[in-house]
Amino acid sequence: MRGRGDDERMTSATAGGWWQRVRPAAQPGTEEADHFAPDGLDAYASALQAALPLLFAFMIAFLAQIFLDGDTGWHLGAGKWIVAHGAVPTTDPFSHTMPGKAWTAHEWLAEVVMVGAHSLRGWGGLAALFALSYATTFWLLSREAFRHLPARWAITAVGLAAGILFPFALARPHVLAWTLLAAWTVILLRAREQRSAPPVAAALLMVVWANLHASYMFGFGLAGLFALESLIENPRDHRLLGRWAAFGFAALAAAVFVTPFSASDFLYPFQVSGMKSLSVIREWRRSTPDIDFLFYICLAGLAVLLVRRWRSIPPLRLLLLIGLSAMAIAHARHQMLFAIVGLLVVLPYLNPAAGRIDVPRARWFWPAVALLIAVRFAVPYQFKEHSSYPLSLLAKVPAEIRRQPVYNEYSQGGPLVMLGIRPYVDGRADMYGDDFTFRQRAINRGDIVKFREDVKRYGIRWAVLEYDDGLLPKLRSEPGWRLFAEDKNASVFVRTN
Asked: What is this structure's pTM?
């Protein structure tokens, strides 16, 4: 950071005077001098604002491997079931270990959308869907960043958010929910910025969000926080309070009455967050500096900002930022909330004295996104098999064996569901419960005694294991089992007795 004096006027002049048109000049030696200075990139702010999300969408569509998670498979299987039956399941229709057990298919809408994209163009159609979601999410983030920061700092802020989000960029419903989370947060912040309440029509986002992903509960928390902030700021403005109340009730009605779930399912996200077995699921692990280095860099930067500017940040927003940080440290998956909501909330305080920038919108952005999606549909997608998706290996298993009960590794359950095979376990740990999830983990690590018990209990006739499963060497020497087929990703065993 540097002062804004003659250097700033020179930079503004070389940028065609654009900066001076959108920001008032700061006086050297004042508090306003202690913030980001503009640079020559500001002349291209409109193009850069659109280019960033387009670049990230291109990476998702053509470069990134978004099919690394087995959960994609069971989401596709659930979507096919919903389309075929014209209903949302309330009990398990997939596994051979938990048939008929109560199950909340809280992501049913995302699953229908995913299976629709997959039916159009296979894996390429799915990649196009998530590229579109990514483009929209980062268009929202980029637009807000360029409203508050000079171009180079806006690029840095959005780039850091992208760096945190990319490890979570998988073909799963939570990525589709990012777009709604970003849009919802922007609507709330714009309302507070204008000393108003969100339009009641904006509550319709909850109709989609509550049927798409359980993160909608966090949306209610955000709305409540900003409504309380507005009430504290304007305690006697009953008309404003009424508008916030109308917005809140409309959103609540959308989430409760425009979903296929009962009132008890409304508490589903809280029930899941209390499961003990979350500790063995990778995305629910604790964030650590060695794995989540970029997150901790951003966390340190946020800490410095809060120490320097805590007096200028409203107390509730200060608590929100601290809460987001604590959540992201406790569970890695909450880094997504930290990156999206944290960025949007903190932007006005990164450069507080400068006001907002009126960056013209690039009209070519959405046509460019449409072209990107069209190219992704046109170019065949080269799916890369791995240990969670040994599709070629599974294709070798005869139909009469595939119809028999199977033992499988946790992440392979989704692909089995997708192929119409009833798994031993899949990614729905919320339905299987803590005891079963811990048991499966012990077996997978090589507990042959528990494996024998479950073979007898469930009538298991074959098994598919990943290349590094602890059970694999045990099963090679287990009487009554033989290796049927294997490749570099997985092995298939069948019973011989």
From this structure: 0.90
Query: For the purposes of burial, counting CB atoms within 10 Å of the CB of 470, is it exposed (0-12), middle (13-18) or buried (19 or more)?
Result: middle
Strands of the sheet containing 462-466, edge to edge, are 406-408, 462-466, 490-495, 481-486
- HEC-encoded secondary structure of 305-372: HHHHHCCCCCHHHHHHHHHHHHHHHHCHHHHHHHHHHHHHHHHHHHCCCCCCCCCCCCCCHHHHHHHH
CA 260 – CA 89 distance, rounded (Å): 10
One-character DSSP codes across 420-456: T---S--S-HHHHHHHHHHHHHHHHTT-HHHHHHHHH
CA angle at 131 for the pair 127 and 135, rounded to the nearest 5°: 175
Percentage of residues in the chain having pLDDT higher than 70: 91
How far apart, in whole angstroms, are the C-alpha atoms of residue 282 and residue 288?
12
pLDDT tens for 376-396 read 999 999 999 999 999 999 999
Buried residues in 103-135 as b, exposed as e (16+ CB within 10 A): bbbbbbbbbbbbbebbeebebbbbbbbbbbbbb
Q: Do residues 212 and 107 make contact, with C-beta atoms less than 8 angstroms apart?
A: yes
The distance from CA 452 to its chain's CA centroid, rounded to whole angstroms, is 38
Select the more confidently predicted residue: 15 or 218: 218
Read off the DSSP letter of residue 202. G
- Say yes or no to pLDDT of 115 above 80: yes
Check residue 276 and give its pLDDT: 75
d(CA 4, CA 17): 15
Helices marked H in 234-314: 238-257, 268-273, 293-309
pLDDT band, very low/low/confident/very high, at 497 (cuts 50, 70, 90): confident
pLDDT surpassing 80 at residue 273:
no
Contact of 388 with 422, CB cutoff 8 Å: no
Question: Residues in the chain, how many?
Answer: 497
User: Cα(319)–Cα(311) distance, rounded to whole angstroms?
Assistant: 13
Amino acid residing at 27: Q
Under 8 Å CB-to-CB from 264, ≥6 apart: which residues?
none
CB atoms within 10 A of CB 36: 18
Buried b (16+ CB within 10 A) or exposed e, 50-65: bbbbbebbbbbbeebe
Q: Name the 3-class secondary structure at 102.
A: strand
